[in-house]
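1st attempt posting a full record on here, be nice pls
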Amino acid sequence: MSRFSAKVALITGAGRGIGRATAERLAAEGAAIAVLDVDGAAADEAAEALRRSGARALALRADITDRAAGRAAIEQALAAFERIDVLVNNAARTAKGSLEQTGPEDWAYEIEGTLTGAFLMSRAVLPHMVARGKGAIVNVGSVNGLLALGNPGYSAAKAGLINLTKSLATEYGRRGIRANVVSPGTIRTEAPSWQERLKRDPRVFEKLARWYPVGRVGEPADIAAAIAFLAADEAAFINGANLVVDGGLTAGLAPMIEELTLETR
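the predicted structure (as tokens):
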């Protein structure tokens, strides 16, 4: 497949997890990749792995909540590749699991890292896309933006990201730029929040699988495939959409249905 031949994608939070899987997927389909991560070592390692596979890749270290740092990273990508066709806002932060635990500092940390960072990166890349009359922005949301599933600061940020995407889609669609969201369910990644849960319960992913009608939690590659679809030209008439990739979690409460229908079995 070569849907991204001669195209350039900048992906935030691309050093690991969903971001890295997306970088690998788009690179396999021909894209040059700007691998941006706050962890410079992770960005370097991911970019080097992409280059070993034959892709063009550039490692960028930046905290996307720092407006100047984000703009500088975009300028570096433009200097290296001359264009940015696709922006994937994947970077996010989560800190506290409940409202009771969440203080103002936690709230600001999660909102800034998950929502404000995506706003700043989008705002910085849009002039370059507008000048070319074409571009695609894919924001990585979450089912947490649709349901109360804990992590209230992160969840509020993901809900805000859905609305930000709609604003981008309606304001910039006529200028050739599409914006969409992919909202994953539980994804098996090495994110710090999941590592903490795994320390408490090594079987957490297996336990969560019962809530998913497909019988499993997701893998980063599942989300990378959805991002690739929305970023590709074949999705040219999809703008402002929220593609929920959750194995059926939000379609209905499978365990509750089982309890309700038990007597009919």
